[in-house]
Amino acid sequence: MVEILVTGEAVERAAAERATVTLQSRWQADAPEAAMTLVAKAHSRVSAEARAFAESGAVDTWHADRVWVSHHREWVGEGQPQRLVFTASASVTATFVDVEALGTWIGELGAEQVHEVGGIAWSLAEGTERELASRARSRAIADAVARAADYAEAAGLGAPVVRSIREPGVEPPRPLLAKRQRGVESMVLGAADAGGAVELAAGDIEVQALVEVGFSAEAASRGD
């Protein structure tokens, strides 16, 4: 009996269905009250809009941080006393299922100096991800069976029989074109600075399956 150990792999792809973005409200001032007041007002508006998007179904989940204040000393010039600067900041993170609504929101808020739009993380709905993972696993097993059969035939062995199945670490779903994705995020930030709705294109997400399968095969019987 001969042991055959092979790795089967498969990838399924689907268009991204969800977009998670973090929008930070941030301001600096010479006094903590001035920075806090402006950011609290801006943050309240962003939170209210995120809540409204959730109620309309455009946003799946969202959460808001509390406003906080920090300070640092800023160099002014040679021989000049350092300036004490206070920074107030708060952020809202929302996962959109309506990409068009997200583009409009980014265009409106990103044009205001108090707001900073972060990059977008694209993902699949849980049901879609589970379905793709299931299909990928089935194809990975079929790939392993085909590989083992090729090796057995090449070595003059009989049909291989499955003895063990092991799933090593599998990478989480990821955008198909990472370089293109970074370009899209840069476009989002630039368009937000200019104002107006931002047109977003997510691309596809990959779901990968990887499996190690152990087989055994007997030497093929020879005729007289």
UniProtKB/TrEMBL annotation:
Protein's GO biological process: DNA damage response
UniProt-recorded name of the protein: DUF541 domain-containing protein
InterPro entries, sorted: 26kDa_periplasmic_antigen (IPR052022), SIMPL/DUF541 (IPR007497)
Transmembrane segments: none
Lineage: Bacteria, Bacillati, Actinomycetota, Actinomycetes, Micrococcales
One Pfam family per UniProt: SIMPL
